[in-house]
Amino acid sequence: MTSFHQMLQWRFVVSVLTIVVVDLTLSGDNAVVIAAAAKSLPPSMRRRALLAGAACAVVALVLAAFFAMRLLHVKFLQFIGGIAILWIAVGLFREEPPLQSSAKQLASFWRAMWFIVVADVTMSTDNILAVAAIAQGDIVLLLLGLSLSIPLVVFASGMLAKLMDSYPVIVYIGAALLGKVAGQMIMTDAFTVQWLAPSAKLIYSAEALGAIAVVLVGRWLKSRHAGSAVAGET
Fold it and tell me: Residue 193's domain spans which residues?
């Protein structure tokens, strides 16, 4: 009897670790989105937004896991998520002045949190399906696995946000990656699939277009901002 209980305990531990590994493997894009959403915040508020957004995302992901198969057929879910990610990607290039007003800081905080939750859930269909398959309806297993993996993704997001502050080239790489992800999400939405039945070639083209468009719009925004700054000085 004892050996049977030990076997069950080991199976539980292995399942939790499997969920963590799978979620981390599939969450590279999510970390970039979360970092991009938090980058616009002052450093003092960034950590709080990352933690609060991650906590909300865990709750949303657990709820979504129960409806994992149905999520694949919800029209416009991934389409809206893709548009939100395009907005976040372009926002990486906006050089906004520091937020002095506490009201503006609070508004920016809630906006970043909203983007973190929406982007994380809409991007996580593959994560949700994989994690739900491993958990097999065990809510404790689901909560433990996601609760362990999400903080690691948040840590990676915080590091990425700091690197984006220091190395501009990472902003371009991150924005291009987000543009690619947005293109894929829009083309694989249930509505787009039903309407266009896109081929693999069309999906790859949309991904490339999303990556290129985001970088070009970002460069235009930066040059426009630089021109306005020079005009303001003169």
Answer: 2-233
